[in-house]
Amino acid sequence: MRNSEDQRKPGRFQTALTGIIGLVSGLFIAIFMFIQLRAAWNNGVVLLGPAGPNAWDLEYEVEPLSYIVAMSALYPAAIVCGVGLAIASWLLLAGNRKDTGRDD
Fold it and tell me: Where are the transmembrane segments (predicted)?
């Protein structure tokens, strides 16, 4: 029978997998949003989807000012959140690595 006071902790594999997925996801979000922000500022067009005739593009010349302001705030916020997720996941991995050296 299990003791109800035991704290359930994830194993090393689950913690490492969570950290790796978070690190990759955070970096992907940050890099993707940086590319979108740079493309929007350089071209005045944001492409959603693969480039080509089927891409959904948003041209700043035809969009209202409120949309432009919203996108100018959204992309940097997404970049900061992606970097934050990557840092938190890296710290999780570093803490997991430190715990593997300890003997309880």
Answer: 12-35, 67-93
